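User: Please predict the structure of the protein below. I'd like the answer in structure-token form so I can feed it into my own downstream comparison script.

Assistant: Understood. Taking the following sequence of 339 residues as input:
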Amino acid sequence: MKQFLFAVSIAVGIASSTNSLAAQGQGTSQLIPRTADAADGELFFQSVVQGHLVDLCRQLAPELASKLGTARQKWLDDRAQRLTNGRAYSLKVMEEQGTTEQKSSDDLRDSIVARAEPQFRQDPQASCVRVLSAIEEMPIAPSPSAANPTVDATIYVQSMLHEDQVATCSRLRPSLTSRLSSALQGWLREMAQPIERGRIYALEHQKQYGTTADAQRKWAHDTFASQSEPEITAEPDKQCEAVANVLEGGFPVPLHGATLADRTLRIDIYRQAQVAASCLKTDSIDITVLQRTPTFIGERWVLQGCGKKVPMTVSITPGSAGTTNFAIKLDRAANPTGE
């Protein structure tokens, strides 16, 4: 849900050739490696897309107009400095490409009206509720000016392994093919920029995996065949369900509720939460957002597994150099057994 607005901008076919703002939003090669200015430019692009979608919803679902306006203003206020930086960067790019902010915005609005509006008109209430939820749930992430190249390279490798996992599971469990394919495409869209950054970094600095993209793809496939494929083949129902869960929600188990943590952060929290719960065989996880400010996110996580339910509070705060900190505190007042 948190990526809904950005996903819509891609889904309605706003290609990078349409205007310079769209070029930033698509994460095209001229922005790799991504700088802090380019990342802020991408955020500014998202704000423009969001603004047009909110305007559309004000027309189609006027009963949501007040909530949408309040949520959007809070979203803008929380990111004011980055949006100012992003607009300045975008104006410079647009000047170089011989276009203007007004023309870019108008082109984007016309694309949304032409391609998204017909879908929204089919069920305006549900569509606009999703827009509202996306604005409210979009995480307050620090500016990715200090993107970690080794993390990006790991995500790049994950993308190749995920493709092999989906191909294998689709063969062994055809009933999951549609769900797996949809989940994979969503994951690839969401992770497009770190995947591209990781690909470039791996080719330049991790040549032990291969000196060409094809060689690294072969290495990833061989690794999957020797390590993951036997596990999937032995327990296809369990393993393929876990693959789908990871691609859809970032966890290998079913997620109930929603978290404001991004994919990388949520899996780090999940691993530590398992240790805190003294249970490495989790069956499911329930998450509720308790508090959200520009500098703090508080969530309640309940891990179910090992015959018990373990509630805990997760606190998320910005760290230094673009990092994010989190802390886990077990809820001692609750019954950890769930009995």
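That's the full token string. The first strand starts at residue 255 and ends at 257.
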